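Batch manifest, entry 17 of 40.
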Amino acid sequence: MKKLFIAGYSLAFGGIEKSLIQLLKNIDPNVYEVTLLLQKKEGAYLKEVPSFVQIEEYKVSHFPIKIFRKIYNRMHFLYYTFKNKQKYDHAICYVPYDIPSSKIVLKVGKKCTYWIHSNYTYIYKEENTLRDFFDTRGITLFDQIVFVSNESRNDLLPFYPTIEKKSVSVNNLFDFDDMLKKAEEEISLPLIHLLFVGRLEEESKGIFRLLAIMKEFLEEGKAFHLSIIGDGKDKKKYEQYKKEHHLSNVTFLGSKMNPYPYMKKADLLVLPSYYEGFPLVTIEALALGTKVLTTICVSTFHFSLKDYVFLCKNDKNDIKNGIIKAVESKPKKKFDFVKFQ
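Output type: structure tokens
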């Protein structure tokens, strides 16, 4: 039996965490003995980890005195990697932002894979900062690089041409049968219902633009209602904006283990992101027959999102006009489960 090692951070709500769970569920326990390393053994998705997966916790010190913190973390790293040196046939760093995960994976795996879930050329505009991010994590030392979209791969290759032959774009995994079953839960929604599902973080998601649009809809007397599912560091800022502008047409529903009934009944899923890797929520909504408006146009080797969604420019006014047009329009091309997989 082969030994497989996967390094994550936690299993809190998020696209990376959800896709990690689906990856684990698709591993054959008769072929692989799986170890999942988490810095924080916590999160809503923790209970969904298959029983055959062994979970280990790798705690990083955040002690306020820098020298003590550095000594502890260095000794902890050396001990863990010495004990597990090349113990695993394959090791995967599933959280590209996490330095300890990437460095541990390179030590414990005979073959190593680095998984990139976002387009980092949008996050780091300056070449020096982009290179510093990936050099620190040792991207060129991995045997394989996995991107979730052609766009994120193609945008990074000019900076790291040597990884071209060992990189690939692949779709995230989905359990469509489970999704369709969960979507049958009974709920009630207002008419002309817009929905956002995702991490509540302004830097990437651009939710203030969506709230500003809802303010304009309210002033114009348009009967649109927006529900927001998710949590994140900017949630309180968004709630404060709603309070200050008396947005009776916006509801925060918090995090939900089962967002699918809301997706299925919504008139339109809106994703006003500044950047994404490959937004899982768009595929989930399309699979449930819900129209999607997004600023994100991404693809893999055999699938292009633009064939199925309503696209708009990364601009507030264009998002607003796109919402009105999409609500009034018929759905685009029907989503094909088999073709996607």
